[in-house]
Design a protein that fits this description.
The chain is an alpha+beta fold. Among the domains are: about 25-70 and about 165-255, Gyrase A, domain 2; about 305-380, Aminomethyltransferase beta-barrel domains (Elongation Factor Tu (Ef-tu), domain 3, Beta Barrel), CATH 2.40.30. About 20% of the residues lie in helices and about 30% in strands. The strands form four sheets. A six-stranded mixed β-sheet has the order 10-11-12-9-3-13. Strands 14-17-16-15-18-19 form a six-stranded antiparallel β-barrel. Helix 2 (about 55-60) crosses helix 7 (about 245-255). The two termini are about 30 Å apart. This is aminomethyltransferase. It catalyses: N(6)-[(R)-S(8)-aminomethyldihydrolipoyl]-L-lysyl-[protein] + (6S)-5,6,7,8-tetrahydrofolate = N(6)-[(R)-dihydrolipoyl]-L-lysyl-[protein] + (6R)-5,10-methylene-5,6,7,8-tetrahydrofolate + NH4(+).
């Protein structure tokens, strides 16, 4: 989320007043903790706390960061059995939903007919008895109303979407997250990366997945909004936990080489261009049956017209979103989609799209920053190693 705070501009006296911002269930907690708040995706969200973005970033890398992500959209697809519900979602997404095991979670994308990404989302198959035809969905805040309408308009008669605005969502991320959460939630330490279970947090019913968007080990905790403050207060009272705002959330996900919708991926971008082929399992790549399959099959066979790459600029000047990427001869070959300072890396980092001939690791390029061509190299993603708990009990 490059620059969550919009630039200051002169007010247009003829423009209608802005819509009132929505609040998460933890809005009062953020203010009490001294957060600087700003509009993001229609919500009043914490950008940073008094210690600052750099300290929040480093704390998450070393201990455990607490993130309020209740602005995200939560919902449930409900059908008579897993096969029916999975095939309904597979008609919209390229992931193998049918092959998901109980308790498994997958990352995927909603695609348009041209293979462009309408949104990226997380899908979980619950492990609990009586949930065989249920899939849990988490979509981006800025896209959730469009996503829900898109999904509802394309479901068959035996599957329905149940929106869940009554639920809140928080994330606990960092190397100490498992140790902390295990004190309150039975069984969570035994979860492997991208698995989930229903449990309780000191007696409060919750649904926990071992996942997140920081590159660190961690968890996302879904709970009824009216019980969210109680869970948050317990976690924030732990000396190993500190609240983290949008600023550090963005620098963490950028160092992890993870896409941000509306910046690194959008309705023009295919999963192949975005280096997300790993999220399309072999059966789906072979069988298709999802929107945009012809484009994706062609790009898999022939290569896409552009590729998302990691960029490491020389020097200390960061290249921000929209900066032009140029070849050594000065010819424009792409644009930066995310860029900023990487605290763990210790310097500026960026991601962007370039022509395939310039996408190889080690390729020399330049980034146009304030009219100057700054040397940069293509590097492998992620910028900071992922530290997910790949095995149960890790």
């Amino acid at each position: 989320m490059a620059d969550p705070v919009p630039p200051t501009a002169e007010a247009d006296p003829t423009a209608p007043p802005p819509a009132p911002l929505s609040l998460t269930p933890l809005a009062s907690r953020h203010r009490a903790l001294g957060a600087r708040m700003a509009p993001f995706a229609g919500y009043d969200m914490p950008v940073q706390y008094p210690t600052g973005i750099l300290a929040e970033h480093q704390w998450t890398r070393e201990n455990a960061g607490f993130f309020d992500v209740s602005h995200m959209g939560q919902g449930f697809l409900i059908g008579p059995d897993h096969e029916t519900t999975a095939r309904a979602l597979e008609a919209l997404c390229p992931a193998d939903i049918l092959g998901m095991k109980p308790g498994q979670q997958r990352y995927t994308q909603l695609l348009n007919e041209d293979g462009g990404i309408l949104d990226d989302l997380m899908v979980t198959r619950p492990a609990e008895d009586g949930e065989d035809g249920v899939l849990m969905l988490v979509v981006n805040a800025s896209r959730k109303e469009d996503d829900w309408s898109h999904i509802e308009g394309r479901l068959g008669p035996n599957v329905r979407l149940l929106r869940a605005p009554q639920r809140g969502l928080i994330a606990l991320q960092g190397p100490k997250a498992a140790e902390i959460l295990a004190r309150h939630c039975p069984g969570v330490a035994e979860l492997g990366f991208m698995t989930a279970r229903a449990t309780d947090f000191d007696g409060v019913p919750v649904h926990v997945s071992r996942s997140g968007y920081t590159g660190e080990d961690g968890f996302e905790i879904s709970v009824r909004a009216k019980r969210l403050e109680a869970v948050a207060d317990v976690l924030l009272a732990d000396p190993l936990v500190k609240p983290i705002g949008l600023g550090a959330r963005d620098s963490l996900r950028l160092e992890a080489g993870l896409c941000l919708y509306g910046h690194d991926i959008d309705e023009t971008t295919s999963p192949v261009e975005a280096a997300l082929v790993w999220s399309i399992q072999k059966r789906r790549r072979e069988e298709g049956g999802f929107p945009g399959f012809e484009r994706i099959r062609r790009e898999l066979a022939e290569g896409p017209p552009r590729r998302r790459v990691g960029l490491l600029p020389d020097g200390r000047a960061p290249a921000r979103e929209g900066a032009e990427i140029v070849a050594p001869d000065g010819r424009p070959i792409g644009k930066v989609t995310s860029g900023g300072f990487g605290p763990t890396v210790g310097g500026p980092i960026a991601m962007g799209y370039v022509e395939p001939a310039f996408a190889a690791v080690g390729a020399s390029l330049a980034l146009m920053v304030r009219g100057a061509a700054l040397p940069a190299k293509v590097v492998a993603l992620p910028f900071a190693p992922h530290r997910y708990a790949r095995k149960a009990g890790a």
